[in-house]
Amino acid sequence: MEKEQKAAQEQATYEQEPLNTEPQEEKVEQHEVNEHQEEIEIEEQEKAQEEQNDELAAANAKIAELEAKIKEMENRYLRLYADFENFRRRTKIEMEAAEKYRAQSLVSDLLPALDNFERALKIEADNEQAKSILQGMEMVYRSVLDALKKEGVEAIEAVGKPFDPNLHQAVMQVEDSNYEPNTVVEEFQKGYKLKDRVIRPAMVKVSQ
């Protein structure tokens, strides 16, 4: 009787054992599912990180491009500003020069007339009528010189002065013991300056 009961118990235990394996299989499957899910989540995170990196790289590239354009525009602005300042300064200098030497063209045109006056005034008058004419011419000559002087015109000093190629034009050289070498000994034609600009150099003879 005891043997039969023991056998029955063993049989019952044997029949129940397969039932105990099902929860174990479910746990394994659930673990695998969880691992798979984690892998998917990791892949998605990595993909999202890559996308963020790509977006960041694109943004940095755009920023670099904009910075380069801004730099180029700044350089262009500086060049334009420098060109404008040079133009403004050059225009100012030209306007000042035009104002300063505004009488140059008139003076140049009057020089031949002054030369003719000077030549005429050297003529010796042999009667009262000629003397009167010469006196009138001298008055006109002096008036013209005074008007030119007001504009800054002055005759260049020549005789007895050291020869200056910027002021004098040597057309002859002579030996003259009365003068130091390289000194103007005679003036053939007067030279004139308008302020600090030579309108016509004096034509002179220079000692050797």
UniProtKB/TrEMBL annotation:
GO biological process: protein folding
Keyword Chaperone belongs to the record: yes
InterPro entries registered for this protein in UniProt: GrpE, GrpE_CC, GrpE_head
Keyword Cytoplasm annotated: yes
Basic and acidic residues bias: start-end ranges: 24-50
Gene Ontology cellular-component annotations: cytoplasm
Protein purpose: Participates actively in the response to hyperosmotic and heat shock by preventing the aggregation of stress-denatured proteins, in association with DnaK and GrpE. It is the nucleotide exchange factor for DnaK and may function as a thermosensor. Unfolded proteins bind initially to DnaJ; upon interaction with the DnaJ-bound protein, DnaK hydrolyzes its bound ATP, resulting in the formation of a stable complex. GrpE releases ADP from DnaK; ATP binding to DnaK triggers the release of the substrate protein, thus completing the reaction cycle.
Quaternary structure and partners: Homodimer.
NCBIfam families: PRK14140.1 (NF010738), PRK14150.1 (NF010748)
Protein name: Protein GrpE
Gene encoding the protein: grpE
